[in-house]
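> example.struct
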């Protein structure tokens, strides 16, 4: 069944895409998947096709993302997604018992929905709330320290049309309403985000810091955050101040200055006719460290970025690389001749020309008709040849 998305969904899709640069529009795929889930309750084949259409992608690219993240549901999901943590910490504290009790009470298993379409149950590997375990979430809002009886009470209230208050976070909404928020749109319900607050385990570190007087040195919580324009202006002023603080360069004389005895005085002498000041004793000059190189001095590869250094080490270009620079080695062919300048670039260009990238022009189809047609044609070809799969394998082995 093909779904026609509403004008409101299409308008919101255009608004989401407009948030990203024109050449980065595919970055809008994640919120767009939440948007189609907000209308249908899951990411259907029609939703995949819609995202591919508005972003200029093929359906295989969209499907690869939709199947990677567990928040995108690939089959109809209930109004309330109940997730019970069964990982190590919560399991030790009774999480598995909570899940088993809910499964028996609701008559469903993992990733299954009740007959009335209200509850979809799933076990979660970790909900990142070990200090509140065992925990469960309803549409990603937390119910902390639950046991079997309190969990049953929550789902019974949901099936009766109620909205139990989570332990932390805003008041509950349906999965479709939650998907609208995840797509980047505000929850317009009256007082939707007026409730909730952090739990005591979350604030424990802050309480200890206040009790023992621990704080960040020089931290002022009232310091305003500067805008980009203010930050750029401050950086320019600091740069100008640093430039002004630099000493003026000393200009060298164009011709040697004659000393009082007619001899040439060193450049930069204090004055004409005055004896030159002896140089300050700085100790004997240290000889340059021998590097073992037979070429001119070059910067060590450590001065370069790791990517450049690795590339030059593996395949340096003879036109730019120094043959015996530390850490590099110009490869030679079997005759011992180093490659000519530009050989690496020419080889790369030839490889790119001979291996054109695969295009995305042909969308991946979701229809079963094409698969059935291919199987029928393959079977017809096999029957016409009179050879079965085993015969074909034997023939291939002989060849």
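> example.seq
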């Amino acid at each position: 069944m093909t779904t026609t998305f509403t004008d409101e969904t299409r308008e919101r899709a255009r608004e989401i895409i407009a948030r990203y640069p024109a050449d980065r529009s595919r970055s809008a795929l994640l919120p767009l998947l939440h948007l189609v889930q907000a209308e249908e309750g899951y990411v259907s084949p029609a939703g995949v096709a819609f995202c591919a259409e508005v972003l200029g992608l093929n359906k295989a690219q969209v499907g690869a993302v939709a199947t990677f993240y567990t928040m995108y549901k690939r089959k109809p999901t209930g109004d309330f997604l109940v997730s019970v943590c069964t990982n190590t910490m919560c399991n030790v504290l009774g999480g598995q018992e909570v899940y088993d009790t809910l499964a028996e009470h609701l008559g469903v298993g993992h990733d299954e929905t009740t007959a009335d379409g209200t509850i979809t149950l799933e076990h979660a590997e970790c909900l990142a709330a070990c200090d509140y375990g065992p925990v469960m979430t309803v549409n990603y809002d937390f119910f902390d320290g639950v046991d079997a009886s309190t969990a049953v009470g929550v789902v019974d209230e949901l099936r009766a049309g109620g909205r139990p208050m989570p332990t932390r976070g805003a008041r509950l909404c349906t999965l479709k309403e939650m998907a609208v928020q995840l797509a980047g749109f505000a929850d317009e319900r009256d007082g939707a985000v007026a409730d909730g607050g952090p739990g005591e385990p979350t604030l424990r570190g802050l309480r200890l810091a206040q009790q023992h007087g621990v704080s960040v040195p020089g931290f002022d919580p009232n310091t305003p955050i500067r805008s980009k324009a203010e930050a750029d202006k401050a950086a320019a002023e600091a740069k100008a101040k640093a430039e002004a603080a630099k000493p003026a360069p000393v200009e060298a004389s164009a011709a040697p200055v004659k000393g009082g005895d007619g001899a040439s005085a060193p450049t930069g002498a204090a004055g004409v006719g005055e004896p030159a000041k002896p140089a300050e004793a700085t100790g004997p000059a240290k000889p340059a460290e021998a590097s073992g190189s037979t070429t001119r001095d070059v910067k060590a590869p450590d001065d370069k970025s790791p990517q450049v250094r690795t590339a030059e080490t593996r395949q340096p270009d003879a036109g730019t690389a120094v043959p015996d620079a530390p850490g590099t080695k110009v490869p030679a062919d079997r005759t011992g001749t180093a490659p000519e300048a530009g050989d690496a670039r020419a080889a790369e260009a030839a490889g790119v020309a001979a291996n054109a990238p695969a295009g995305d022009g042909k969308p991946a189809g979701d229809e079963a008709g094409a698969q059935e047609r291919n199987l029928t044609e393959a079977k017809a070809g096999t029957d016409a040849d009179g050879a079965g799969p085993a015969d074909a394998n034997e023939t291939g082995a002989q060849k």
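> remarks
The chain is about 40% helix and 5% strand.
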